[in-house]
Amino acid sequence: MGTSRQPDVLVVGGGLAGLTVANYLRRQGREATVVERAADWRETGYGIGLWHDGISVLDELDRLAATRRAATDPDAFEVRAAGGRVLSRASLPAGQTLLLVVHRADLHAALRETVPDEWIRMGTAPERIDERDDGVVVTFEDGTAETFDLVVGADGVHSTVRAECFDDWTKRAFDTYVWSLWTDGRPSLDAEMVSLWGPGSEGFLARVGDRVGFNLAARLDAPPDPPARERLRTQAERIGWRLPASSTAADDDPFFDRVREVTCARWHTDRVVLVGD
Question: Do residues 120 and 14 lie in contact, with contact meaning Cβ atoms separated by under 8 Å?
Answer without folding.
Answer: yes
